[in-house]
Write a structure and sequence with these properties.
By secondary structure, this protein is an alpha+beta fold. The protein has 4 domains: 91 residues, Nucleotidyltransferase, domain 5, CATH 3.30.420; 76 residues, OB fold (Dihydrolipoamide Acetyltransferase, E2P), CATH 2.40.50.140; 110 residues; 64 residues, no CATH class. Helix content is 28%, strand content 31%. It contains 11 helices and 22 strands. The strands form 5 sheets. Strands 4, 5, 6, 7, 8 and 9 form a 6-stranded antiparallel sheet that branches. Strands 12-13-14-15-17-16 form a 6-stranded mixed sheet, with helices on one face. A 5-stranded mixed sheet has the order 3-2-1-10-11. A hairpin with a 6-residue loop joins strand 5 and strand 6. Helix 7 packs parallel to helix 8 and helix 10 crosses helix 11. The longest helix is centred in the middle third of the chain and has 22 residues. The N and C termini lie far apart (49 Å).
Length: 387
């Protein structure tokens, strides 16, 4: 079994993928800290209490950047309006909800202004290396400083793993390994299943519904074969929930009814599939064939970074401006490498253009003449012209 870790440390987005025998097994994605400042899981702050809500037994804490943090049970801590206290971010902001906090020792506060960040979270690559453990056969990184990367790998206990690094080149490392295509597939609502059938994944603010459609594969099959197909679909559903970073409650609608032997076998298969993945809990199969899976939100979840709530309907999701800006930059860098002296025409919605201009095109590796064109929501494009 071959395990490899690939990392793209871009100026807008960090992507890290672990593969097992060439297949995507784990994924971490987040906006680059320089482009998207704000609280991350693992950040330590000295915050100030700005509002206590007795009905929730909670308070809001000013962190000095980003939205107000949410801290439960302030009465247990003897907090009052204006109190300064060290806190750690344990869950990042989601939609309109601010980051969730936990108190930390006052010894960490030291001297200085309030509020402020006391210590940043570890680099996302360190988080991925800790999750992968000592099982890696190779590590490849695009972007970042080679000396700093070598030091990071050594500190993570991966100093002896074969390692290669290259300058950022528009995500070519991920494209060469087929990872760009695999990640793009994770953002599609329909997943085809081997042997027929499909999964349809529907996210809402309250929960995610995964509909297992095995009709094409099971219409003329024996009962045992139908159960096998449903089991394979269930294992893939759990894999998709993990890779997509879908936090909270997911309900998998399986083509079974009742509480017979087949249903119990599916429930056992679900728990076996979830066991190797930390933070996944299977709550059981209902008589109607609904399996509830609960996944803890973690740093680097694809869904938290790549999707944002639709402002029109407030119930659906669409591609975030950060995700679109990162993809547009990758395409533009590759187009510039193919035509170093020509003009580039970039098409993007205003929020996407604003991110790229905030980062700086030259700082992002896109030197040379660039023209901009307006585009509708969710639409980006790159066109290379003559000089």
């Amino acid at each position: 079994m071959s395990r490899r870790l690939f990392a793209e440390l871009g100026p807008i987005e960090t992507r890290i993928a672990e593969t097992v025998d060439g297949r995507l097994a784990r994924l971490w994605v987040e906006g680059a800290r320089s482009a998207f400042p704000g609280p991350r899981i693992g950040d330590l702050y000295l915050g100030r209490v700005r509002g206590i809500v007795p009905g929730l037994d909670a308070c809001f804490v000013d962190l000095g950047e980003g939205p107000m943090g949410f801290l439960p049970r302030p009465r247990d801590l003897g907090l009052a309006e204006g109190t300064a206290l060290p806190v750690a971010v344990v869950r990042e902001a989601v939609d309109e909800k601010g980051p969730r906090l936990e108190p930390r020792s006052a010894a960490a506060a030291g001297e200085g202004p309030v509020p402020r960040r006391l210590a940043p979270a570890p680099e996302l690559l360190s988080v991925a290396l800790a999750a992968a453990g000592a099982r890696l056969d190779a590590i490849a990184v695009e972007g970042g400083d080679r000396r700093a990367l070598a030091s990071l790998l050594s500190a993570a206990g991966a100093g002896e793993v074969p390692f290669r690094a290259q300058a950022h080149a528009g995500g070519t490392l991920f494209e060469e390994e087929g990872l760009g295509e695999a990640i793009a597939a994770l953002q599609e609502p329909v997943v085809g299943l081997t042997g027929g059938g499909r999964l349809a994944i529907h996210r809402t603010p309250a929960l995610t519904v995964v509909d297992v459609d095995t009709a094409a594969a099971t219409a003329a099959s024996k009962a045992s074969l139908r159960r096998g197909t449903a089991e394979a679909a269930l294992v893939e559903a759990i894999r998709q929930i993990e890779l997509r970073g879908i936090g909270g409650i997911s309900v998998v609608d399986l083509p079974v009814e009742g509480r017979g032997r087949g249903a119990r076998a599916l429930e056992a298969a679900a728990r076996a599939a979830a066991a190797p993945v930390g933070g996944l809990k299977v709550n059981g199969l209902s008589a109607g064939g609904l399996l509830e899976v609960v996944r803890a939100r973690r740093r680097g979840d694809l869904a938290a970074w790549a999707d944002e709530r639709c402002r029109c309907c407030a119930t659906g999701y669409h591609a975030s401006a950060g995700r679109l800006a990162a993809e547009l930059l990758r395409r533009a860098v590759r187009a510039r490498r193919a035509a170093p002296t020509g003009r580039l025409s970039l098409a993007a919605p205003e929020p996407v253009r604003a991110i790229l201009e905030r980062v700086g095109l030259e700082a992002a590796g896109l030197a040379g003449p660039v023209d901009w064109a307006a585009a509708g929501p969710g639409v980006i494009g790159v066109e290379a012209g003559s000089r």
